């Protein structure tokens, strides 16, 4: 069957046309035609399985490639198995509650449950705002899960010392974990660092990008949020460690990644060395999460550029680097 032109009417009744790609069978052609007509006419009689494709088509230029991949995985793994063939305008709050109960029974962490909830809410919010779904069932249901874990793992200074002592001083992973621990930067931000990001004379590090690998491709893009772009003051010993490491690298240019590895290798190294040191296993992300309860209203004022703005929790627990905690302990306990 040769490619043909499909005509459709927009809301202003003006006619537009779209070329349909070649289809092998009449059934495929009809299926494509039905999907296309449903999407352009904003017909919420379509199934959720069909709408998910419309959703990702609309989000293609808005979300990062990795974000789309992660969202698609969560939707296809935890939402579509329950709603794949249900029509968008027939899904009720009762259906959402039943789905929530099924997810809770699987024993997922509260934060993971909230992530699932956010995905299904995003689907219905998009359907309501862009395609005029008359009734958003998620608005009538209490969100499941929690945005922040009740208890977050972290290492004390003593645990970190035991961990870092298992590595050769000045080696690649020694410097990697020193940066993560003392600066509070994210793993992707650390992996994106280049020589030009380090202001050695002034002991500062610039965070302007993040790195990840997807589909066997290296991707460097803007950080997680606009607030994540920041300048971090470095302790002098850390500046020296980074400089000594960089100076020993062959063919290093100003814009070459200092650590040309992927996140998985850092995670595996963390696991192996933590076991060797006999300290509890935490995630790489948790290295930047030393928590402390304190009477002061906002300890982050002592080092406002250390972490990005969204790292300040609403509850009375404050996120700081251990260097700040050490300085505070010295000043509060002379």
Quick tags:
12 helices; 3 domains; three-stranded antiparallel beta sheet; disordered N terminus; hpI Integrase, Chain A; two-stranded antiparallel sheet; 334 residues; elongated
Draw up the topology in text.
Elements lengths: L4 E5 L5 E5 L6 H15 L7 H12 L5 H14 L1 H4 L9 H12 L5 H22 L25 H8 L7 H12 L3 H5 L6 E2 L4 E4 L2 E5 L2 E5 L8 E4 L2 H12 L15 H15 L13 E2 L25 E2 L2 H11 L2
Antiparallel strand pairs: 1-2, 3-4, 4-7, 5-6, 8-9
Helix pairs in contact: 7-11, 8-10
Question: How would you explain this protein's 3D organization?
Answer:
The structure is a single chain. The longest helix is centred in the middle third of the chain and has 22 residues, at 110-131. The model is unreliable at 1-23, 291-320 and 326-334 (pLDDT under 50). This protein has helices at residues 26-40, 48-59, 65-78, 80-83, 93-104, 110-131, 157-164, 172-183, 187-191, 236-247, 263-277, 322-332; strands at residues 5-9, 15-19, 198-199, 204-207, 210-214, 217-221, 230-233, 291-292, 318-319. The strands form four sheets. A three-stranded antiparallel sheet has the order 3-4-7, with no helix packed on it. A two-stranded antiparallel sheet has the order 1-2. A two-stranded antiparallel ribbon has the order 5-6. The protein is built from twelve helices and nine strands. The termini are far apart. The chain folds into three domains: 1-36; 42-140, DNA polymerase, domain 1, CATH 1.10.150; 161-284, Orthogonal Bundle (hpI Integrase, Chain A). Strand 5 (210-214) and strand 6 form a beta hairpin. The protein is mainly alpha-helical and 334 residues long.
